[in-house]
């Protein structure tokens, strides 16, 4: 199967790098854009497997690095959810230029929240899959920092997360975000995949997400799965459910 390294730009003129997987058959039955999480990249094992499997099933698949990550330009310290939504818009426009048919999106962890926010403002998204996506990313602030540390972040203008500098722009972005409110505008079918042993994003957030999207979503709880779904058998099930969802809906 053909794989092509591609580049496109976001509204901030940063260059985003991706890998486009072409469908094994001549006529594509759809396309999927895959979004990685905060400390991941397009080279995530699950995104590679998903992309190649989708191509085998006759679909385009685009996995790309958000700005500030991997082969894309930009500085990690400037990461925000809102900026990644703009990156996803650039990826969607790129994919639309290659494929006139239906386009779905898969997002893992932070990429799942970004996918939800994007789908809320773009009715052309054909189908969506979230994997361990935070419904309340703003709650990370209280879990990771004390009120005093948050105040220091504001005053100093930056903090460090896992050894990497992150500017106060992420804090400001999270404090104004309301993902549940945005969900009201989503109209595509959504598959919610989440492990019941996720110690990063509580499984309760998946249940709440399903509640908000009850009429258009399916909730699949992975018994025994952690945030990264490190159990190979559970990962295999997860990827299979995701691929089946896209093959059923954006075809």
Structure notes:
There is one protein chain. The chain is of the alpha/beta class and 251 residues long. The chain has one domain (3-137, 177-248): Rossmann fold. The protein contains nine helices and ten strands. The strands form two sheets. It has an eight-stranded mixed sheet with strand order 1-2-4-3-5-6-9-10, sandwiched between helices. Strands 7-8 form a two-stranded antiparallel ribbon. The chain is globular and about 60 Å long. The model has no long low-confidence stretch (mean pLDDT 95).
CATH class wording: Alpha Beta
The coarse silhouette is globular
Radius of gyration: 17 Å
CATH topology annotation: Rossmann fold
The CATH superfamily appears as Alpha/Beta hydrolase fold, catalytic domain
Tally of individual domains: 1
**How do the strands of the widest beta sheet line up side by side?**
1-2-4-3-5-6-9-10
Number of helices: 9
Helix vs. strand class: alpha/beta
Give the name of the CATH architecture. Answer: 3-Layer(aba) Sandwich
Q: Into which percent range does the helicity of residues fall?
A: 25-40%
Give the total of beta strands: 10
